[in-house]
Amino acid sequence: MGLRESNRSFAEEIGANDPVWIVGHGTRTEPHSHVRHVRAPRGIHSFEPDEMTVTCGAGTSLAELDAALAGAGQYANLGQLRHSSGTVGGAIAMACNDHLRLGRGPIRDSLLEVHLVDGNGILAKGGGPTVKNVSGFDLCRLVVGSRGSLGAIAEVTLRTRPIARSLRWFLVSNVGTSELGAIRAGVHRPSSLLWDGRRAWLCLEGHPHDIASQVEALRSRGLDVTDHHGDIGLEDFQYRWSIDPTDVVACVEQHPESCIAEVGVGIVHHRRAQPPRIVDPGTRAIQSRLLDAFDPRRRLNPGLGDPWTW
Amino acid sequence: MNGHIVEALRGAIGADAVRDTTTELALFGHDASNLVGRAGVVCYPHSTDQVRAIIDICRQHSVPFVARGSGTGLAGGATPIDGAVVVCTTKMNRILSVDVESGSAWVEPGVLNLDLTRHVAEWGLHFAPDPSSQQSCSIGGNVANNSGGPHCLADGVTSAHVLACDVVLSDGTEVRLGGNDPEPLGFDLRGAFVGSEGMFGIATAVCVRLTANPPDVRTMLLDFTDVRSGTDTVSAIIAAGMVPAALEMMDRLCLQAVEAYIHAGLPTDAAAALLVEVSGLPAAVEADARAIEEIGRAHGARTVRIARDEEERSLLWKGRKNAFGAIARIKPNYYLHDTVVPRRHLSEMLDRVYRIASEQNLLVLNVFHAGDGNLHPLLVFDKREPGVLERVHRAGAEIVKESVALGGVLSGEHGIGLEKRDYMPLMFDENDLVAQKRIRDAFDPLGLANPFKVLPSPAGCGDAHAHVEGLWV
Fold first, then answer.
1. Topology annotation, domain A166-270
2. How close B25 comes to chain A (CA, Å)?
3. Sequence ranges of chain B with CATH classification 3.30.43.10
4. Which of B150, B168, B380, B389 is most buried, by the most CB atoms less than 10 A from its CB?
5. Which residues 14-43 of A are in CB contact (within 8 Å) with B?
């Protein structure tokens, strides 16, 4: 069965009546047990290394996608460092960015084209198959992180990237704010810089000589830099704060030993929940109107609540 | 324009900021496209409060409004229809704050693209999107069109460089879409707003992401005796796992026009030339430059010129970015198109472009973003020649259709606007267009923000599509 035919079958399966839960591998959310489960189409439809694009069913496993792309020295940025398992659709719907976001960017920039089934069972497409496209309004950006509430993702076309010649993690010990500043000034566009107020973990991607020369430059500034191969332990921090990156240093200093911050990004992995964030009524209204338009009866992945409470 | 509305606008934002002379209405009746509409009155707000006051008056009188930056758009996105109120943001041109630590800046929409980059240069930063019009185009316009530019190949177009927008909606509500923080709650409304061509509301402040300047840059010019060798080189570079900072192509007629204009020593006898720039850390730059030279020579590159210094690099880029000015030496008028095809079809698409131009007895130059398959066929003509505009429009229509037929898209960076509105069904079926209309309605249920653009009827709801002069659909 071709991918487009699979999409139509997927739309028929979703139908237009009862509530449905779109099931992936269940790695990011617990499937709702009281509603009908539906699985998105699977399989890689096309991968063009010289286009740096890949088209696949949303039910395709990340493992299958990663293996196929790695064969051509490429990857798709779907936050695999945080969730290496699960499906492509799950990664997009949940937008679980990983801690390489500083260098690789957010997941939202990976999606070029999407086919989805709305709450009325209607199949629709947004975006386009090329790496550059401004034709029409940007349904793709809305879908990333929408948790399937605007539509069940059937098929996606993703931008791929070349795998760097080298990727290395380093641990920098005895890092206060001045040392943190020295690290930031001493490296060009690192892939990750994590800091807990005392230690920093630095990820550099690129040419091995460039990585080595940057590390030497840091050491020449008196920084204690060693290779790091172990686990950083981000999973020990239950909560994920999203704050202005300018406030990261203050946040870490206020909560010593309680958090690890993604410097330059604004994500703080924390032991305590983030204080409630305010969402203004105007943006709530837009989001409600979007939900009313795409799934007026809230039958797709029911029970999620309002988007601004996620 | 109804005199009561003009008086109300003057009362709200000041008499000097509301203009309705014949000359100004004519000037603001179009953008940089060939599409001419009709402006009712032109307003120059200085603040968010004034933008909201204008929108309130428009809403009270059910008059549509059109946001306009520098008017450099090429798809008629800022062309007002049927006497709409033009909200010109050029007076809102302050850089509000720069946060060097986080690499971001809040700016008003009228700030010029290049002015922002110049402003942050002292901290080793720049704003990555760099349209050819960057000396005159505004950040607000970049946001509206999700603009690109030669250096967006590696770092992405405007959407990837906008963190937040403060917006006034048509109901007068002020909202912040996105935020300084990386994961604002709920849907990515910021992402939907960028590229919405002024149809969701008016941005009054934009938070942009700034990019660190690369420590090392290598700019190369490779020339070929046939176009296909050049396009094959483009695909081979990408397939080899490199994403250069820029990967641009010029064909022979363009090289000749530019060389006559700037005297950069361009190879005027070549069929095509690639301008390739790699940037980053020294070892990677050296390795990539060497690999690109090898790939180019393996694909028949006749010469590989490497800019020796910043002066030569600037000269090469001056040639690329001023190509549109150079063509005035050939013919007084031009029509610049913007489509994208998969990279592997570049050669075939260029063949079709040459054939279409020949069939319509037109001259065509090609200068484009080869790295992302973004073509810019430039049809040059003298509009005083009887019947030539009809031939230009026929050629444009064919180019768009052929691009989509090859698996491409309608626009890579200029937007749909009025120009390609009625071509949207080539890419999208009725359900797709309904989905897009839903998004627009969620932001602007009243339909007052820049109506008649992007969405063709019937997806464009009850908008009775006015016909504007120069529309070729």
1. Alpha-Beta Plaits (3.30.70)
2. 28
3. 3-90
4. B168
5. none
